[in-house]
Amino acid sequence: MKADEKFTYETWPAAPEKQTLDGKNKFLGFWLFLGGETVLFATLFATYLALKDRVPNSDHYLAKDLFEIPLVFVMTMLLLTSSLTSVYAMYHMKNFNFKKMQLWLGITVLLGLAFLGLEVYEFNHYVHEYHHTFTSSAFGTAFYTLVGFHGGHVAFGLAWIITLMVRNAKRGLDLYTAPKFYVASLYWHFIDVVWVFIFTVVYLMGMVG
Amino acid sequence: MANEELNSGNPKVDIEYRRRKSAEEMRYQVVSFAMMIFLTFVAFIAVGYDISGWFTIPFILVLAIVQVGFQLYYFMHMSHKGHEAPALFLYSGVFVAFITLLAFMTIIWW
């Protein structure tokens, strides 16, 4: 099968992301990358746990003074829902329905943007209300590095998905574009995997004390 | 599962089979999502009720690991065939991650 072959609903293969050698390599390489990402985030989590609440004096706020349940809860729901909408997008990709795939990717992007907006609000709030900044303490540095790196992944993922949607708007689905969409959706799910540990380890454990 | 190569020689049968398979898979995905939302709620409520940290911290960590399992095996399709190498890569990463966390939490003190 050629990468630019034209397909119909009937001839579209069951696993289009792995039909070509290019697709198979992308799939394998991307999972290797995700294994590396796991280690990357582990080092940031480990640093955060070692430096949590390490502040120079009692003027500084600690984790339990900073975090608020409602905001973190809303952010969690937004990102979790965006993970489901990208599942829907891949469902339509497998059914060779390009328009519906684009629609669900669009919804995923909107949810991701809402998440990012809340994170910007959150950081801004900490900096201005609590003087909890990147340089105010070891705790601050570890916190913004970990959570900010995740936010950076969200921003990168959004840029990636938007680029794919725009660039392939006219081309549609074939065996060249299908692996690209599939791999981007894997990345988006991985961002949610990391967030599950962030909301548990940083926010919920921070509020427990 | 839905992801396997199918070829019965009769395209109509294949299409019907695939349509049913992917509808079934979608059902699993929605159930996974409901479970993930439920686990998230339980974790937030456990922290909101302010029970002893000795119980809450291990409890919410277990909930997080279960939820990530749903994400990996259903949303990221690791339960499908052909994910042996991804599992090797991911679990190697998890292994190094575990050692890193262990080292930072036991060797570093103030």
Automatic annotation (TrEMBL), chain A:
Any one Gene Ontology molecular-function term assigned to this protein's record: cytochrome-c oxidase activity
Recorded topology in the membrane: Multi-pass membrane protein
Keyword tags: Cell membrane, Membrane, Transmembrane, Transmembrane helix
UniProt KW Ligase keyword: no
InterPro entries documented for this protein: Cyt_c/ubiquinol_Oxase_su3, Cyt_c_oxidase-like_su3, Cyt_c_oxidase_su3-like_sf, Cyt_c_oxidase_su3_a-hlx, Ubiquinol_oxase_su3_dom
An annotated GO BP: aerobic electron transport chain
Chief localization: membrane
Subcellular location field: Cell membrane
Transmembrane segments: 28-51, 71-91, 103-121, 141-166, 186-206
Keyword Cytoplasm: no
Signal peptide positions on this chain: none
Residues annotated as domain Heme-copper oxidase subunit III family profile: 28-207
Gene Ontology CC annotations of this record: plasma membrane
Family, as annotated: Belongs to the cytochrome c oxidase subunit 3 family.
Record protein name field: Cytochrome (Ubi)quinol oxidase subunit III
Species the sequence originates in: Cytobacillus kochii
From TrEMBL, chain B:
Leader peptide range in chain numbering: none
Principal location class: membrane
Transmembrane segments: 28-49, 55-76, 88-109
Coiled coil ranges: none
Location in or out of the cell: Cell membrane
GO terms for cellular component: plasma membrane
UniProt entry keywords in alphabetical sequence: Cell membrane, Membrane, Transmembrane, Transmembrane helix
Any Pfam family hit: COX4_pro
Membrane topology of the entry: Multi-pass membrane protein
Name of this chain's protein: Cytochrome c oxidase subunit IVB
Organism field: Cytobacillus kochii
